[in-house]
Amino acid sequence: MKLPLPRGPLSRATIDLVRSSVDAAPARGLAVHAQDAVAASDDLAVDDDLQLALYVMYELAYRGFDGVDDDWEWDPRVIEGRRVLERAYERELRARVEVPDDVAPTRSDVAAALFTMTAPTPGPSVARYVAKRATRAQLEEFLVLRSVYQLKEADPHTWAIPRLTGGAKAALVEIQADEYGGGAADRMHCALFARTMRGAGLDDEYGAYVEQVPAVVLAALNVMSLFGMNRRLRGATAGHLAAFEMTSSLPNRLYGDGFRRHGFDAATTLYFDEHVEADAVHEQIAGRDLAGGLVRQEPELCQDVLFGAASCLWLDERVGAHALHAWTAGRSALRVEP
Amino acid sequence: MSREARAAEIVPCPDGPILVRGDVQILDEAGEPVPRRRATVALCRCGASAIKPYCDGTHKAIGFTAP
After folding, report:
1. What is the topology classification, in CATH, of domain B1-67?
2. Partners of residue B39 in chain A, C-beta under 8 Å
3. pLDDT at A315 over 90
4. Domains in chain A, number
5. Mean pLDDT across chain A, nearest whole number?
6. Hey, which residues 3-42 in chain B have their CB within 8 Å of chain A?
7. CB of A284 closer than 8 Å to CB of B13
8. Residue A330 above 60 pLDDT?
9. Domain-located, residue A125
10. What kind and span of H or E run contains B12?
11. Do A281 and B56 touch (CB under 8 A)?
12. Nearest Cα residue to A255 out of A132, A97, A73, A79
């Protein structure tokens, strides 16, 4: 994918740095820029400059960027900036999200707590809006917003596989194998999402719409890499995945209904229909065998598991509120380039 | 399939579906095989799923408690 355009001084410094050659670039890294950006922000999750910079730093470890030297992935000049942003983002999440503190570190109690945290709630939601009210243009925006994650669906949680052992590892592999289509390339969930984008007349190229995706959506994506790429946060990855799967089956039914309402064919809605069935399986495995199983192995990770789940839900709610607020006001939920 | 099939495993989830893994054929009431697209499936136990015999998570919306 192409390098995105900067959204402020930190992302400009990040993009300028990785665009130059590793050998010829200045010795000064991104730490000071990152510290300045953190100091200037009162809400990191909606800070376009900071979240885009973090996105670029992480993306070096996924698919990279056209014309960017692969060596930047582990270059200390990038990593020092990433560490500053990761510490600040984690600190802010821990300060803001509500994590239950009365859950016993047992398999069944952790699973029950996760199902309670993710229990369906009445009231306005993106899923209900998509099912009943969204215009065709809003459905396209819905896909664009989701595309930054869904075109690499499952990848951020896969980082945790080598960090786990025994039953928790087997559970994560069982889920991820299904995410990757059971080994069939055309059944991989990212491939099904690409098919949905094409069915809606959108560009399914990886990263095609990053410019139009606002900070809060990047924040919800970056948190998965924050958890996935730091072994210390393997409990948070397990909790994040559990919460993600537990809030998926019922909404995906409604997403599919919204696209059927606009006359899209079965190939276009297959992604949603697949998730109704798949995630009803995954949520059970993720809650009990992955998250619960991990806490049984490593009871000290209990609070991190719940923190990961709460972070997923908190960010998902902010993304949903952003989209609903825009759509019900008749505005676009996409980022307007300044 | 050259690999030895995994032995059948059936897991009733508390207040949730029944997970089925391994070498199991699922048949409908006419005896016809139900398409199975994944290694592990969840069978509806609450009766309210729209994709029976599979679970679609509806048990959570109706407050199902398993007997």
Report:
1. Ribosomal Protein L9; domain 1 (3.40.5)
2. 174, 177-178, 182
3. yes
4. 2
5. 97
6. 11, 13-14, 16-17, 19, 37-42
7. yes
8. yes
9. yes
10. strand B9-12
11. no
12. A132
